[in-house]
Amino acid sequence: MAGGRHAYRALFADLYELTMVQGYLEEGLSGEAVFTVFVRRLPESRNFLLACGLDAVLGYLERLRFTDEDVAYLRSLGRFSHRLFDWLRDFRFEGSVYALPEGTPVFANEPILEVVAPLPQAQLVETAVMNQIHVHTVMASKGVRCVIAARERTVIDFGARRTHGVDASLDAAHAFHIAGIHGTSNVLAGKIYGLPLAGTMAHSYVQAHDDEREAFRAFARMFPGTTLLVDTYDTLTGVQRVIELAGERGGDFQIGAIRLDSGDLGTLAREARGLLDAAGLKEIRIFASSDLDEYGIAALVKADAPIDGFGVGTAMGVSSDAPFLDIVYKLSEYAGEGRMKVSRSKSVLPGRKQVFRLEEHGRATGDVIGRFGEALDGRQLLRLVMRQGRRTSDGESDLDAARRRAAEELARLPSRVTSLERAEPPYQVSISTALEQFTAAVHKRVVGG
Amino acid sequence: MAGGRHAYRALFADLYELTMVQGYLEEGLSGEAVFTVFVRRLPESRNFLLACGLDAVLGYLERLRFTDEDVAYLRSLGRFSHRLFDWLRDFRFEGSVYALPEGTPVFANEPILEVVAPLPQAQLVETAVMNQIHVHTVMASKGVRCVIAARERTVIDFGARRTHGVDASLDAAHAFHIAGIHGTSNVLAGKIYGLPLAGTMAHSYVQAHDDEREAFRAFARMFPGTTLLVDTYDTLTGVQRVIELAGERGGDFQIGAIRLDSGDLGTLAREARGLLDAAGLKEIRIFASSDLDEYGIAALVKADAPIDGFGVGTAMGVSSDAPFLDIVYKLSEYAGEGRMKVSRSKSVLPGRKQVFRLEEHGRATGDVIGRFGEALDGRQLLRLVMRQGRRTSDGESDLDAARRRAAEELARLPSRVTSLERAEPPYQVSISTALEQFTAAVHKRVVGG
Prior knowledge:
Distance between the termini of chain A: 49 Å
Oligomer: homodimer
CATH architecture of the largest domain in chain A: Alpha-Beta Barrel
Radius of gyration of chain A: 26 Å
Largest interface: A-B, 105 and 105 residues
Strand order of the largest sheet of chain A: 13-12-1-5-3-17-18
CATH topology of the largest domain in chain A: nicotinate phosphoribosyltransferase
Number of strands of chain A: 19
Structural class of chain A: alpha/beta
CATH class of the largest domain in chain A: Alpha Beta
């Protein structure tokens, strides 16, 4: 599905990818390259990230084709040669991909994904691979914090109106589902990914009626069991109207929940709960929204506010406190030799790598980044998900499996790491002796030091 | 074009839009509604926003159709009736839109756009209209700050790898062009919007060669006049290699620029400029990138760093300091009567409105938000851009006209407003007496106060 959405976008690439590909073709540099995707530093407010976006990447790689129109556009730029055009016309991605399964917690410097392919192929796909891993991982890593904050209460994605475009809303809804979010207001995401949908009324519905009571009565008649938004004029007056209607109309007025969307949500929820309970309407739940993020949810949960579910919009939909990651796609091996950029503060671990997660009594104690093929203790996290351009069984798309995996993997992390506060000490990630030695050797060769 | 990209996305809507539409249809609430799009508060770091996204909105409204597959999906939800399905199958947007032309500076509470249409139609389009105005305005408002910071120097969009998905990269490139950005690395955006493209090589190109000198020589041979990235190993050594190659190979080694991508850009640029000038290579320009934003650019410009152009990636591509706006789409009139939500701190100016920009000697002195049709001093900013579902001449797509408009409108703002620092005093926006009186009257009617 994700691949289908992205199929028409072969030209989604930075221009320099094409310039370099042409260079490689002209120079005959078509040996095997390894590119590693990783995040150099975690944002201040993240103890871990939830790796996501793999299904979108594999869908893109499987379907990447250049149309005649694409090639004609490139020709019109007057920068490229026939060698590039011919190569693009025949293009099929034939490489391998090793990756963390979607929903795996990941830390700074750990490979999220490694592409192993002829250099021009691996270079060409840089922009799209990074973009997709980035947006999905940003969103999943924010969404999971809201799920953690809500404990067992429901969290719904209300972000569609303020995500960065339509794709972002779909990528986000997909990532949020993996992160454990319970549903979305986004109908298109519901259709594409089979997600549970939620949503009933906005203030405009109430305002379009001459009075609130009339609006509530009409809506409840059409949608038994619905959620009524009670704060268009005055929240507690709105709650009183619900109670009055329930009293007057009995079984003809079935309401599942009320929604609060402004004011002091904790206080209003308590007052509303009191009014509803006193009227014998204990089964009516309370749903809250209004500029919520994980901290707002956590504060309400800590205060034991009688709120059954949260709608989270903008803060989650743009990952407002950490809208980007310092993610990179770096050449780490070419033609059998480790490669690295060594300019200040931006170095790279060379060669193919593996992440080993050490666990004791079912709890992760730390990770080791090692060389691929090393025999070290710990669970090996990177898997072969694509071979010669085709998904392996580990690369098959399974959204619900990813969601279960995320929940299981999170349960194995130390609680300080899954808390909203900064983990002290941070989760430990070390480099294996073999990888350290290899890095030193490559560094020496590259800089001649 | 933008509409074409978005055509298949009729179901991009929050579920409650459809629920409410069904309600309106069942209840016969099909009178004329006015919805107003505005931003309640500007982000801390913005003195103004650059209104954008109108072309995408109009393209969406023109093309919005529901397929049988869309309707079948909605039927599968088991929430809706035939009345809704029949209405969706026949759906054509038949309303009017009044809007600020793309590229108009706008302030808090000022209408960016007003939709005037039968209530169900105007409600249906809420999510998509907001999403598109939001993402384009977020991006343009960030991009223009980078342009301002760079004074007359070149600024290129390098954001594609870290925007929130592919759409966001396209929406951003479109908005950046209006904001005055000079080009993009995003090939797909270049194709769709006819934007100038930029980009030559990444570190991986250099690393794939056995040494940097060989990489430079090969690339310059293939792409005369290109830009060489000099910091893969050591920046000044890289510059020396460029100089040596120019000396050895003379006219066979034509370089347009070097790019610095790490370290202290100001110091390195000065040192590189010194080396190049001493070697008689005054015509080679210096281009800089690496975690730049408007503040980084401004500091380099202020220090008079010899940098001719800047590549700006993530900070601009996600608008990192202000990734969202407090934008809303609020019912302000229905069936000829002003409407407003009055819940705490979230009120709305009722009725149709106009923005009047007051100017003296070609400089804006303040805006007045008035009632539509009021005869007030000042330039009227909202224009009729769509009538009965068709674009008027003011609604025609013209990206370059929008770019020129933005430059002209910005030149008319007081310099404190277009500075990067917080404007003191802020730009003045007042409410006309007639609108104040109308607001009070509607408030009284609505709350019965």
